[in-house]
Design brief:
With 365 residues, the protein is mostly helical. The protein has one domain: Farnesyl Diphosphate Synthase, CATH 1.10.600.10. The chain is built from 14 helices and 6 strands. The chain has a two-stranded antiparallel sheet with strand order 1-2. Strand 5 and strand 6 form a beta hairpin. Helix 2 runs antiparallel to helix 11, helix 7 runs antiparallel to helix 10 and helix 10 packs antiparallel against helix 11. It is globular.
Length: 365
């Protein structure tokens, strides 16, 4: 699972937990039905915001159905979201996965740097893109326009250098997410929300780009990979300020929108987003410990001090399938990442028993 809006039960009221899971499962099943079982690996936490935005405008009129037992949620039944919201989220997840794979193929880094993997990754990226196009056409999403924005990212990054405003680097991402958020207003049946949603989407795209760059800053420097903060000469303190500004812009835009039920919107795009900013820039729950970084090529020390190295592509794929089938990536409190071998947390685990405001300096009130 990917994205900055990772769930945390300590920040989720009990009555909203099943609703969050309903959107999560709705996206997962939409990916399965429209793009095949393997596409469920592209499930992205952030795209759930699109499904939530659609539902928030419809209230009790939003579509849903009862899904049968699933191993990924401990063989429990679940009321899941259906309709345009999950389909929009599925299209976005596939587009993001396709763009990520293409970036790795073009840069020759990540797991695709391994011999024989680049061709497979390129074909997977093309397949995800075509599936996203098909889903998008079914809901009237301007996929080609969004793809054009995503494709511009590589050229923009190649042209930037010290002194380039960071806003120029994040602009393609902002346009793509703005189009996705704006379409949520159309699917929700309230086109008056198009402007506020577009502004919120642009701010969210900027925020996600900044957090990803800050999170990868040390790793990219160690491995000589391109990073927008390093390339433009933007320091982490400035990035923190820009991230908080993006968060404020998104809140302001959502205040201008009208909702039937905004509880889930506030949960994801306020509390979860605030926690992501605090976590990335070093202030988060006391139970979270960032793995210690050490020198060395492709190795790190885990929370127990043990030296580990990433798995290869095929070994990681086998382990990943096992994690999914045994529910560990969903229900286990901590497990080892399939490829990176870094500690991960299950999306339904009880991550902490503390009050957020007592143990961290995040804006999660």
């Amino acid at each position: 699972m990917f994205g900055i809006l990772a769930p945390c039960p300590s920040r989720t009221p009990d009555d909203l937990k099943p609703r969050w899971m309903g959107h999560f499962c709705g996206l997962c099943l939409e990916l399965r039905d429209d793009a095949g079982h393997l596409s469920r690996l592209t499930t992205n936490y952030d795209t759930l915001a699109l499904s939530v935005l659609v539902e928030a405008q419809q209230g009790s009129e939003a579509g849903g159905r009862d899904a049968g037992p699933c191993a990924l949620r401990g063989m429990r039944r679940q009321r899941i979201a259906t309709g345009g919201g999950p389909r929009l989220a599925a299209a976005a997840s596939l587009l993001l996965a396709s763009a990520k794979l293409r970036d790795h193929v073009e840069d020759g880094d990540g797991f695709v740097a391994r011999r024989g993997v680049a061709g497979l990754a390129g074909r997977a990226a093309g397949r995800y893109r075509s599936k996203a196009l098909a889903i998008g056409e079914s809901i009237g999403l301007p996929v080609e326009q969004i793809m054009a924005s995503v494709d511009r990212q590589q050229a923009v990054e190649g042209a930037c250098g010290p002194g380039t405003p960071l806003a120029e680097v994040t602009a393609p991402t902002e346009r793509a997410t703005a189009d996705l958020f704006a379409h949520a207003a159309v699917l929700g049946g309230n086109e008056d929300n198009t402007g506020p949603f577009r502004a919120a989407g642009a701010a969210f795209g900027r925020l996600a780009h900044l957090l990803d760059a800050a999170e990868d800053f040390e790793d990219d420097a160690e491995h000589g990979a391109w990073n927008p903060l390093a390339a433009t000469g933007t320091g982490l303190d400035e990035a923190r300020s820009l991230a908080r500004g993006a968060l404020a812009d998104m809140r302001m835009a959502l205040e201008a929108a009208s909702f039937v039920d905004e509880a889930m919107v506030r949960l994801l795009l306020d509390r979860y987003a605030s926690h992501a900013v605090s976590k990335t820039f070093g202030s988060t729950c006391a139970t979270y410990r960032r793995p210690e970084r050490r020198s060395g090529h492709h190795e790190y020390h885990d929370d127990m001090g043990r030296k580990t190295t990433p798995r290869g592509f095929w070994a990681g794929l086998c382990v990943g399938i096992g994690l999914c089938c045994s529910c560990q990536c969903c229900c286990k409190e901590r497990y080892e990442g399939a490829w990176s071998r870094k500690p991960r947390e299950g999306c339904c685990r009880d991550c902490c028993d503390c009050s957020c405001c007592e143990c961290c300096a995040c804006d999660c009130s």
